From TrEMBL:
Organism name: Lysinibacillus antri
Keywords: Dipeptidase, Hydrolase, Metal-binding, Metalloprotease, Protease, Zinc
CDD domains tied to this protein: M20_PepV
Protein's gene: pepV
Alphabetized Pfam families for the sequence: Peptidase_M20
NCBIfam families attached to this UniProt entry: dipeptidaselike, PRK07318.1
Record bears the keyword Nucleotidyltransferase: no
Superkingdom of origin: Bacteria
Name of the protein described by the UniProt record: Dipeptidase PepV
An example molecular function term from Gene Ontology annotations: metallopeptidase activity
Amino acid sequence: MDWLKLAQSRQDELLSELKQLIQIESVLDESNATEDAPFGPGPLEALQFMLKKGEEQGFITKNIDNVAGHIEMGQGEELIGLLCHVDVVPSGDAWTYPPFKGEINNGKLYGRGAIDDKGPTIAAWLAMKLVKDAGINLKKRVRIIIGTDEESGFRCVDRYFKKEEMPTIGFAPDADFPLINAEKGIALLDFSLNQQITREEQLVAFQSGRRSNMVPDVAKAIVQHVTSDLIEQYEEYLQKNSLQGSINKDGDKYIITVNGKSAHAMEPEKGVNAGVLLAKFLKDQLTTKASQQFVSFIVDVFDGDHFGTQLNLNHHDDMSGQTTLNPGVILFHHEKGAKVQVSLRYSVTYPFEEKITVAGKKVSDYGFALDVISNSSPHYVPEEDELVQTLLSVYRRYTNDLSKPLSTGGGTYARVMKKGVAFGMLFPGEPDVAHQADEFVVIDNLIKAAAIYAEAIVELAK
């Protein structure tokens, strides 16, 4: 069966459905969440869109509490899972193309979710249709399982698997080819300032970032009781470091902003953290106790170091690489307190409890306390496993790429399965633009991925 030729013949159908899905602004919206839409109207609409497509094509579909669902085909006791998600992170700023339109230019389709994870979801969906339409007799059931809260904690699949069976094996089309068999642990850490904040503090407010899993691209601070030449010093700082930002005087206060560059928290080195940039300037301007403690901690721990070296949180192993830290949300307010929320992506062999204990003692020297808000353990499937070898074999037929399996600091749905891996759909050499402005998917690669997924379904379920 020439799956690539079949996928190419249905390119218009694939792109039309992807555009429709991208046009749904499926960002977590807890302020408008209801019992019927637990994560807000956008994620629910995206889920309903996919399930309706499944119904229209004659698949078995099921909605689990409006947080997740599945589209199923095949017969048999064993179940193959393709775990996808249709929620997306906020669009952020600095887009050239509309983030929720699906505009096509020069062989690329642009939009939030194009590569994470709406594009891969639609590729997997086309693969399901190709296999069904080919009339191939499958000996196992195959489900696309669709989540709506992947970007904010996996609550969707947690609920789903309380009510539905766990796949025997499966994959998540939400990362890189050739295949990812090692996913780092992901912990959410809160570093909270112990010092009481009074209205007399020079730092009135500080805000940077909305999600711990994104590098903040904008930071804003309000300061008071500072030197009269603050504007000149800040403009010099911006010019010296080739940065974009602003400073304005509002009564007896100054409002300061700076722009960075967004990136996924699993690769913070690919972004420029606006919160760290702003703290770095303020460190030489602020002298009151809480203000100085706050910005000094940010600069000392996170400036120029994504590995947590200062707190002894750093660790490396061969199967999953470096541990990384992303200070994704930074807040300071005299009533709400001050904290730095960090996404810790730690190696498979990381001694978590030991490292956290040591770091807790070290942050106390800065006047901070460390709390673990959540923790998802690392996930690993050995390279010699039959699932890994089958998927690698399929991928290599289409690419002649003999690369070894990879590790990732990203967390995919593969980690919730008893035996699952991440399988595409970013090809080697492609830039990873997930969570960035002007996110895109290369159309030719989208079609090739659909063909790979179709053949993978047949190989796993035959």
